[in-house]
Design brief:
Elements: E1 4-8, H1 16-29, E2 34-38, H2 46-49, H3 60-64, E3 75-76, E4 83-86, H4 98-108, E5 114-118, H5 125-131, E6 136-141, H6 145-160, E7 166-173, H7 175-181, H8 187-194, E8 198-203, H9 206-213, H10 222-235
The structure holds adenosine-5'-diphosphate and magnesium ion.
Amino acid sequence: MSKVLVVTSGKGGTGKSTVAASLGAAFARRGSRVLLIDCDSGMRGLDIMLGVSKGVVFDIADVVSGNCKTEHIIYPCPHTQGLFLIPAPQKAEDELSPEVLSQFIESVESQYDIVIIDSPAGVGKGFETAVYPAQLCLVVANAEPTSVRGCVNVRKRLKELNKDNIRLVINRLSKRSFFKLNFYRDLDEVIDETQIQLIGVVPESPQIVAAVQKGAVCTGDSKALVAFDRIAGRIEGEKLPLAVS
Ligand SMILES: Nc1ncnc2c1ncn2[C@@H]1O[C@H](COP(=O)(O)OP(=O)(O)O)[C@@H](O)[C@H]1O
Ligand SMILES: [Mg+2]
């Protein structure tokens, strides 16, 4: 099984951080020790999503520059046992290089069952840093043409970076996405256009938004929970049906 995952998408706002946090929580529910690394330098958000933002003093750039020890940047998530977060640098200019992030992960990964990296939007330097250590790249799309184009760009860039283990997560799916936009006929058309193998479908879920506002992860919503549990199961090699609302 791949141990280091990255969640990416090209376009901003597709739900990368939500997927990274909720998938991390799904692995934690399955009994894994999970390390989430926020790589969205200058735009970090996982600390808010996971309810640790008030306690954050140091971030990953502080460890690399010797300001603090590794244990000072690993924050246990209060709502989910087994889930730990490393916040991204507050300033964009403190972004790590691919090699430095990779060395850092090598130094801590033996203490975790799974490491999930949350990538910034785009296919720039931050993206390259985030994907470099990953053995599995999850690309998040919504059923919208701009989001699908973002995925196509990400897929091409990942191939250039010799990343071949790529899977698609369709997020925020609702039947209305097709009727309202009147662009794609169905889910198959979205998947075909991305040319990425599907690993899971997460429904549009108001409960995710409410959970995030409370600094928690995807609580109380059965369909989204099932979707993330199944993605975690499939990553661990289980044969599970796709969770489509
Ligand atoms: N499955 C979902 N259902 C409803 N809202 C969602 C879902 N996934 C993400 N969102 C919302 O979409 C917005 C963007 O999500 P976020 O994870 O911050 O995206 P990104 O990290 O790609 O920029 C947030 O307001 C989040 O609550
Ligand atoms: Mg994000």
